[in-house]
């Protein structure tokens, strides 16, 4: 039985899959879900999907969580930071639960949607937009929806061109001259095209619901969109179309890609148009005092967010809210998260410093050979308490 009654029918509901553990990010996802990891000084990764929804005119968003959801839940709140807390709008946090004996935690992307059928039915959408909560990009989902409708598609898959030599790392969608997908290859050794799936799908809800319910009743594995659902659609001869995206898109699922995306974010000519007032990226931010940069400090080619105290040298780096860099210290080519304290005469190069980490005086963190990571609240060296 649906748990919200008499909901108005809507064109499209967004479902953000935000339950990934993100083990490849190591220390950074030890206690929080990957979509909650900070990015760019004042954002978290999930902010980009949520902001895209708000800018695309999507009124209702379900956020499917699983692994370490507390920080993510606190960040999203009631959706007010994204303007999704009004009449007939809302963000709903959807966590695993057991409605009947034998139900399990989410076993895959499609299974997570199946387990939330009651919620989706309560919104009563014509279409369901499936998103990942751990990518950095700006995209108008309404344009993709219009393309979906014009093609009379049952399923549309967003694709992005990648270098042919890298195509074997992705799920590849091979299409005809009209953009209709005729073949899906999961990380092929010899790819036939470079149309990489972005993990962004628009489904006609009635058809997807039917497929998932029938599969469950017949004990057919339909737990994953890439491995099960898309091949089933193609085998059944459904209208499956690609939607080509040519903007900035980054999967920040590894330490190297997260560091690289943050370094790219510093550049004024970055393809990610974060300063575009017509497509704003929203977030829930701390209220902090203004920055204080001492006379002896040097800050060059860097992003410095509210509440920072800088008495050292900062080059091509990002200092998030309330970061401290004391006298004699050098921070270079690094991303420093909220609340980190860097003592005196410290050297940090090519590193990611976690939230509330403490780097004691005279410490050296050198990522010249390999990007170095300091975890949340991790202490390196000794912290000196000074009045």
From TrEMBL:
It comes from the Bacteria. Pathway: Glycan biosynthesis; glycogen biosynthesis. The record marks 66, 105 as: Could play a key role in the communication between the regulatory and the substrate sites. The keyword Hydrolase does not apply. The keyword Transmembrane helix does not apply. One of its GO terms (molecular function) is glucose-1-phosphate adenylyltransferase activity. Pfam families: Hexapep_GlmU, NTP_transferase. GO terms for biological process: glycogen biosynthetic process. It is an enzyme of class 2 (transferase). Its EC number is 2.7.7.27. Involved in the biosynthesis of ADP-glucose, a building block required for the elongation reactions to produce glycogen. Catalyzes the reaction between ATP and alpha-D-glucose 1-phosphate (G1P) to produce pyrophosphate and ADP-Glc. This is Glucose-1-phosphate adenylyltransferase. It comes from Pilibacter termitis. The gene is glgC.
């Amino acid at each position: 039985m649906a748990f919200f009654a008499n909901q108005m029918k809507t064109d499209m509901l967004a479902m953000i899959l935000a339950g990934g553990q993100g083990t490849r990010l190591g220390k950074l996802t030890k206690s929080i879900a990957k979509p909650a990891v900070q990015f760019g000084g004042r954002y978290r990764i999930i902010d980009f999907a949520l902001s895209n929804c708000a800018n695309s005119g999507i009124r209702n968003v379900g956020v499917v969580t699983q692994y370490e959801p507390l920080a993510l839940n606190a960040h999203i709140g009631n959706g007010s930071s994204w303007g999704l807390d009004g009449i007939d709008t809302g963000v709903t946090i959807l966590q695993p639960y057991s409605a009947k004996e034998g139900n399990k935690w989410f076993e895959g992307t499609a299974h997570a949607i199946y387990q939330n059928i009651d919620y989706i039915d309560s919104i009563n959408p014509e279409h369901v937009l499936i998103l990942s909560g751990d990518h950095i990009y700006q995209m108008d989902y309404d344009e993709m929806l219009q393309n979906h409708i014009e093609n009379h598609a049952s399923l549309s898959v967003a694709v992005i061109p990648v270098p042919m030599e890298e195509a074997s790392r992705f799920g590849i969608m091979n299409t005809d001259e009209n953009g209709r997908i005729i073949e899906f290859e999961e990380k092929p050794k010899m790819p036939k095209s470079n149309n990489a799936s972005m993990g962004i799908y628009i489904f006609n809800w009635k058809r997807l619901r039917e497929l998932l319910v029938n599969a469950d009743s017949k004990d057919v594995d339909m737990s994953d969109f890439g491995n099960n659902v898309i091949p089933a659609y193609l085998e059944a001869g459904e209208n499956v179309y690609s939607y080509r995206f040519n903007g900035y898109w980054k999967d920040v699922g590894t330490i190297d890609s997260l560091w690289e995306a943050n370094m790219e974010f510093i550049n004024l000519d970055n393809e990610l148009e974060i300063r575009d007032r017509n497509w704003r990226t929203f977030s829930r931010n701390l209220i902090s005092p203004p920055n204080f940069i001492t006379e002896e400090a040097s800050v060059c080619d860097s992003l410095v967010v509210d509440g920072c105290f800088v008495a050292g040298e900062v080059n091509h780096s990002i200092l998030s809210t309330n970061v401290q860099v004391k006298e004699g210290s050098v921070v270079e080519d690094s991303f420093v998260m909220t609340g980190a304290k860097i003592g005196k005469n410290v050297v940090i190069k090519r590193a990611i410093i976690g939230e509330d980490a403490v780097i004691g005086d005279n410490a050296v963190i050198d990522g010249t050979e390999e990007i170095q990571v300091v975890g949340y609240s991790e202490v390196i060296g000794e912290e000196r308490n000074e009045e």
